[in-house]
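Why show two proteins at once? Because comparison is the fastest way to build intuition. When a single record is shown, students tend to memorize it. When two are placed side by side, the eye starts asking what differs. So, the first record is below.
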Amino acid sequence: VQLVESGGGLVQPGGSLRLSCAASGFTFSRYDMSWYRQAPGKERELVATITSTGGRTNYADYVKGRFTISRDNAKYTMYLQMNSLKPEDTAVYYCNAQRGYTSYWGQGTQVTVSS
């Protein structure tokens, strides 16, 4: 099983980034998928979730209206479009796959928002 995040980097406040999470080794379309983030000295927090079919999404209040989660089950890939980025969005972003008690994590990708 592998979850590999990509697309992170350094961006100025107000800018945009698109994160990707490429999955392999399990049946991607059967799992709900989420993005989490962890800033230095803080606990990991949920950013957004998308159901296995992509029919429902849910967002943390602090990203609503700015971030969009999506998935392509044929490509075994999940995405996070991040717009209007703020310095407080700086964190390592992780993707997660969840089905019942089974949970897989990626290694994370760094997002830094700074001028």
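Second record. Ask yourself what differs from the first in the token line.
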Amino acid sequence: QVQLVESGGGSVQAGGSLRLSCAASGFTHSRNCLGWFRQAPGKEREGVAGIYTGGSITYYVDSVKGRFTISQDNAKNTVYLQMNSLKPEDTAIYYCAASALTDEEKRSGGYCYSFLRRGGLYWGQGTQVTVSS
């Protein structure tokens, strides 16, 4: 059974930093898509950052490029989201998500390229990030 446990949310002023962690367990193999999604009140869920765990290929939504960094520690089965230069519009509940590669991703070699759009099969419980101006 796959489990994702997030930690690291909190409140910070604009311009500050936070680091989110997602500890993953229960995968049958090591090559998956892991990443972070967020949902602000009244808005749709948005894919923020994803990583292909088999090769550390990363993807970001345009609004966080240059500010957020996703990384992994394979020894700890943990994925991190380092968030710098936070803005009030980054305020949301952040969810860790995971899925296997799609057949198309395997065929094309574009590992996890659609993950931020399609979402995960497995989800964490969410952690609140609040950025004040």
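One difference worth noting in the second protein: The longest strand covers residues 18-25.
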